[in-house]
Write a structure and sequence with these properties.
heterodimer; A: 205 residues; mainly alpha; 9 helices; B: 212 residues; 0% strand; globular
Chain lengths: 205, 212
């Protein structure tokens, strides 16, 4: 239990997807104009991450890693398919996003309308693929750890986008120098927020 | 030959460098742009990889554009891009292993770099292969110069070197009392530097200023 809580705190605050690794910046900057839409996108990212990263973990463990095919036959112990991981991961992500979209459309039209255009966008959100690649690097022991890891990463991303949207809603009424308006001031804002998040560095329960 | 480099095609190459810059104007591909800019060498390798992948994925998708069914085009595009990125990744591992280690997951993240999908959707799906190829190179270069510019400032002020050459030390700045600025190496400064680049660019090109 302790490792899970530690992992959660670590992924939400210390190794925040946005502020420490800049993953998913494109949609982060494009969709953070109002709090309402950013909450929708944040929830969708958490949702897709919690499903795709554990699936990719299982694929990595039983298909791609060196010696992972021994469950098929001991002769395959030397096969190393790691070089295929990019293409497998992105295919899994794109397929699951499509699947999730269809399932939600069938069973919960109201949620489908709320998430709407964001779901297809998520397939090319760097945070999802980035999460999968970090999962590969960190070599987790069990599936449950990857579930916690992916939930924490998604939650960190969602917190980041909702707080930026809240600031941007307020800053609309302030008098910013014309060339800095819009994108420029947003970058500087994110930089300042990232500095605040640096305070969590080395934080451990 | 003259037709291949007509003024229209040259525009495709030069526009993304300034007025249609993928990072500062189209807001594409920021994820990887910020994380690899601590030192110039990885930034340069990253920029080169992106130029190659954008150019060739644009070329391939443009050549296939009439045969790709609309409904599954995203997955087809992703597979083409992923195959190219795997090739680049294996080449980097073979020839510049230390840089490949520094870039870590960010080579793989070229797949989801929004520049690629953005250009494929907006340009390659509607234009001929040669134009798309040039457009890919232009956008890759537009991305690259921002990357290298940010990396230059961060490396010079953060570590006092330029491409590993100890410039600050050779200029005698340390004996004059200069101290390396540690914040420059931290992630937030990359964001603020890009913000400053946008500020400078927009005050020089008034038409880019956003309306209220």
């Amino acid at each position: 239990m302790e490792t899970h809580i530690n992992l959660l705190v670590n992924t939400v605050f210390v190794n925040n997807m946005i502020f420490a690794y800049f993953l998913g910046m494109c949609s982060y900057l494009a969709v953070s104009k109002t709090v309402k839409t950013s909450v929708g996108l944040g929830v969708a990212v958490i949702f897709v991450m919690v499903i795709t990263i554990p699936v990719n973990y299982l694929l990595e463990k039983y298909l791609l890693k060196e010696g992972s095919l021994t469950w098929l036959s001991p002769k395959l112990a030397e096969v190393d398919l790691t070089f295929l991981s990019f293409i497998i991961f992105i295919a899994v992500i794109a397929a699951i996003v499509q699947l999730v979209e269809m399932i939600i459309e069938r069973f919960s039209p109201s949620l489908y309308n709320a998430l709407g255009i964001f779901l297809p966008l998520i397939a090319v959100n760097c945070a999802i693929l980035g999460g999968a690649l970090f999962m590969q690097q960190r070599e987790f022991g069990t599936v449950w750890e990857t579930v916690t890891f992916s939930f924490g990463s998604g939650l960190g991303w969602a917190i980041a986008i909702v707080s930026l949207a809240a600031i941007r809603e307020k800053i609309k009424y302030s008098n910013i120098p014309a060339p800095l308006r819009g994108l420029g001031i947003t970058f500087i804002l994110v930089g300042l927020m990232a500095m605040a998040f640096m305070g969590f560095m080395g934080f451990k329960l | 030959m003259s037709q291949l480099f007509s003024s229209k095609n040259l525009k495709l190459l030069t526009n993304p460098l300034n007025l249609e810059n993928p990072i500062t104007v189209q807001v594409l591909g920021i994820c990887s742009a910020l994380a690899v800019t601590v030192k110039m060498k990885p930034a340069f390798v990253m920029a080169l990889s992106v130029v190659i992948v954008t150019a060739f994925s644009n070329l391939i998708i443009s050549a296939l554009r009439k045969g790709i069914p609309g409904r599954i085009r995203i997955i087809v595009q992703l597979v083409v891009v992923a195959a190219l990125v795997i090739m680049v990744d294996q080449l980097l591992r073979a020839f510049v292993y230390d840089v490949s280690k520094q870039l870590s997951v960010f080579v793989g993240l070229i797949i989801t770099n929004c520049i690629l999908m953005g250009r494929l959707e907006a340009f390659a799906m509607a234009n001929k292969p040669w134009e798309s190829f040039i457009d890919g190179i232009g956008n890759g270069l537009g991305y690259g110069w921002i990357l290298i510019g940010v990396a230059f400032v961060r490396e010079l002020l953060g570590s006092g070197t330029v491409w590993g050459y100890p410039l600050m030390e050779k200029l005698g700045m340390y004996t004059a009392g200069y101290v390396n600025n540690g914040v420059m190496i931290m992630p937030p400064m990359a964001l603020i530097l890009v913000g400053v680049i946008i500020w400078i660019q927009r005050s020089r090109n008034k038409e880019l200023i956003e309306s209220k």
